[in-house]
Write a structure and sequence with these properties.
Helix content of chain A: over 70%
Number of domains of chain A: 2
Oligomer: homodimer
CATH class of the largest domain in chain A: Mainly Alpha
Distance between the termini of chain A: 61 Å
Radius of gyration of chain A: 20 Å
CATH superfamily of the largest domain in chain A: Tetracycline Repressor, domain 2
Order of helices and strands of chain A: HHHHHHHHH
Mean pLDDT of chain A: 81
Structural class of chain A: mainly alpha
Low-confidence stretches of chain A: 1-11
Strand content of chain A: under 5%
CATH topology of the largest domain in chain A: Tetracycline Repressor, domain 2
């Protein structure tokens, strides 16, 4: 891959490559240093473009952060529908564990960890991205309810009960997260939901 | 409370006060800026002591981090034994939610989020502190099993299933975590554990 290493050269017809390179570098820096550590000078240097190129694309840093995280939200964790809810949620958790352990997953968590007083706008954004994923989950849960595989459930609660433990596991980094781990969590939550529904 | 605001004054007979002030300030900085942002110059200035005082107490930064986090682990989240496991776990989760939302709780999570390659020692330490809490939980769970309130359970798994969702909830900061929230999580996990045990 030919990468232009001259810092001040204009991107010319390779806008898309440059954008990709910048977003990847921004994600790396976010994961390393958090939002406050994301400086345009370092970003330009890592992506091997001129600083003006960065400012032209994202005059405000919040816009850059939004695009990086939006990209992350699009890439991550679709929910299958094989007709079998336990299997689909298990696959969902395996994919989520991988995303959570990645540089972008850590950047996302870093974002949520940010202090309330200096990053409300960005924090709200991270929450919106998470909520978008919750809508997909609700649709899948509703189909499972129709199929008699679950009582009526509330996606934000189910998501918290499933993704919360996975996040916890991944942060400890004691060992890799396996399909058996995912299955154990899903089984416990699904059986618990049935019992709660029956009370 | 009389606080010495002269930066270079020696602590004299007030060693303990100075240590407390330093640990509190170190925790604040950890929560704000992470491990890498914990600089002795800023720490001394925030705690209103001379820099030499800091170096004398903790020649290595890892020792300081260890003491700050050890203090956090000691302060946080005892598990009651009222004889009623659902009630005790609910109280445990309420206390954990408060600890997780605090400056020190965020600092602890920040620590776990650190990059694998540059903070292995400190990361391992954070994990050890978490494991110490798991031992208490195991003893409480074993007594519940003896009383017929739970099947035999594994504290690290139960802790993940309880504390993971609470951490997830707290990070979103959408609304305060209530006793009803704690109770809902505990009920689901306890009923799920019974069903898993019955399979």
């Amino acid at each position: 891959m030919a990468v232009d290493s001259s810092p001040m050269r204009r991107p010319g017809g390779r806008n898309r490559d440059v954008t990709e390179r910048l977003l990847a570098a921004a994600l790396e820096i976010l994961a390393d240093k958090g939002i406050d550590g994301l400086q345009y000078e370092e970003l330009a240097s890592r992506a091997q473009v001129g600083r003006a190129t960065v400012y032209r694309r994202w005059p405000k840093r919040d816009d850059l952060v939004r695009e990086v995280l939006g990209r992350f939200a699009e890439l991550s964790v679709p929910i299958d529908d094989t007709g079998e809810i336990v299997r689909d949620l298990t696959a969902f958790l395996l994919a989520f564990a991988e995303a959570a352990a990645s540089a972008s997953g850590r950047a996302m968590l870093q974002l949520l960890l940010g202090r309330a007083d200096d990053s409300d706008e960005v924090h709200r954004l991270g929450r919106e991205l998470l909520d978008r994923r919750t809508d997909d989950l609700q649709r899948r849960l509703d189909r499972a309810t129709e199929a008699g595989q679950l009582p009526p459930t509330d996606a934000p609660f189910v998501n918290m009960m499933l993704a919360g433990p996975v996040q916890w596991f991944v942060l400890r980094r004691a060992r890799p997260f396996t399909r058996d781990d995912a299955h154990e969590i899903v089984e416990l939550v699904v059986t618990g939901l049935w019992r709660q529904g029956a009370d």
